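# step 3/5: fold
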Amino acid sequence: MGSVAGVVFASFFEWTLHRFVMHRPVGPFTYPFRAHALVHHQIFRADESYHLINEKDKETIPMAWWNGPVLVLLCSVPFAAVSWWFGRWGFLLGGAVTCGAYYAVYEYLHWCMHLPRKRAVERSGVFFRLNGHHILHHRYMHKNFNVVLPLADLFLGTLLLRSKIRFPQVVGPSVPNLQPLETPKSMPRRFLGFLWSLVVGAKGT
């Protein structure tokens, strides 16, 4: 139970952190905003610069090493509170492990997205779609805040499946066509297509 809740909660935690901490200053606490919005997004855009060009910029792809323990701890706090209230400590264990795994997947996928090396994961349909999801975030910084699971993007109204206008996007074997359709589909149809591509891609891996 804790693991299932952890996946859902981690998606919303990632969304909240990304939107309200990494894309805007929080009072005097400006480190995440400067490191992400002012540095990472200025180096990696939605065009060919989405993939690493200068080796010296590689260090700007992952978060600082100490971010992991801090974020996993913060993500686990609600699970600790619920476990303490009901006396079910297995819920905390499941939630904490899942939050830790979610963070690890976030860092790995994000690394592969900006530094492609023809890894096995990059040949999967799931990565293909999530990569396109993240490229659109680099084109529209107020959209697609999730990297791992776009559940929060869907429910909180920030999901974007294709660009609204044509733009010079990055190309590559793990990059989908994100240009607008000549005959636009409704959002429900586009999202169902997005989900189906994830399912088909997962089966094909």
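# step 4/5: annotate
The first helix runs from residue 2 to 20.
# step 5/5: archive (pending)
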